[in-house]
Amino acid sequence: MDDLAGRSVSGSAGDGLLVAVDSRIHRLPAQVKIVALFVFVLAVVSTPAGVFWAFALYAALLAGAVALAKLPVTTVLRRLAVETPFIVFALVLPFVATGPQVDVLGVSVSESGVLGSWNVLAKGTLGVIAAIVLSASTAPRELLSGLERLRLPSTLVAILSFMVRYLSVVSDDLHRMRIARESRGYAGGRVGHLKAVAGGVGALFVRSFERGERVHLAMQSRGYTGRMPQLAASGAARNQWAEGLVISLLAVLIAVAARVAGL
After folding, report:
1. CA-wise closest residue to 136 among 28, 60, 233, 251
2. Where are the transmembrane segments (predicted)?
3. Other CB atoms closer than 10 Å to residue 91's CB: what's the count?
């Protein structure tokens, strides 16, 4: 515990992906934003892929959310890189899917594959942007508090809490090990160097495991009984729920209209 003295989940232990600005979305309770994200994503994934106007409206809603959260567009675009595997899959899908073929720019591709590719790209991108808004407007500790208020099992909340708290500690260990390797002439880039990397990963695992044992014993000596102190002090007011769910409820209306139009 000594190596964590003075640290906090929302402080030097890292603010995660939080963009520290003051906005209406930042001020909303975390549990409201989590429910809003879940409802929005549920509306998006339930929308038929062929109803293109619905996805344009979803994109407009998300653009409004990004503007309300005062998030830099460059930050949102940079974090969209996490979607790269889905983009690669979507680009390959028209060439491997079966069914009727259609010519696109002189190339024969599967018609169902093109629609499936659009489905993956559109819904995946909208979902990722919505998650970016949540992560950029909510500190890790607030997210944990929100999950606790939503009655997530206390054991899972405790695991996530420790993960957030010790992520920077393990990262610092990894950084020091990299400096130690380089100070001894390690350059990397060769197959023979994999042994050094594997040894470092193993040492990091053992060190983290032993730290966890020491922390657990220290917590038990201070009266830990298996349940963490409650993180959330108060719930959300009705007006906060109403304000936070506006975009998601509009998305639900769009989804309903899209399904009716697709019948």
Report:
1. 28
2. 28-45, 80-97, 117-138, 150-168, 241-261
3. 12
Signed CA dihedral, 193, 194, 199, 205: sign only: positive
Residue bearing tokens 């002439």 = 185
Nearest C-alpha neighbor of 44 from the set 78, 36, 76: 36
Enter the tokens of residue 147: 């999950």
How does DSSP classify residue 128? H
Cα(162)–Cα(159) distance, rounded to whole angstroms?
5
Per-residue pLDDT of the chain (263 residues; tens, 9 = 90+): 334 333 333 343 456 689 989 999 999 999 999 999 999 999 999 999 999 999 999 999 999 999 999 999 999 999 999 999 889 988 898 888 887 888 777 778 888 888 899 999 999 999 999 999 999 999 988 998 898 889 888 888 888 888 888 888 888 888 888 888 888 777 766 666 777 778 888 888 998 899 989 988 998 898 887 777 766 656 788 999 999 999 999 999 999 999 998 77
> Phi first, then psi: what are they for 13, rounded to 5°?
-70, -5
With CA atoms as reference, report the closest residue to 41 among 119, 118, 127: 127
**Phi and psi of 110, rounded to 5°?**
-75, 130
**How many other C-beta atoms can be found within 10 angstroms of the C-beta atom of residue 30?**
25
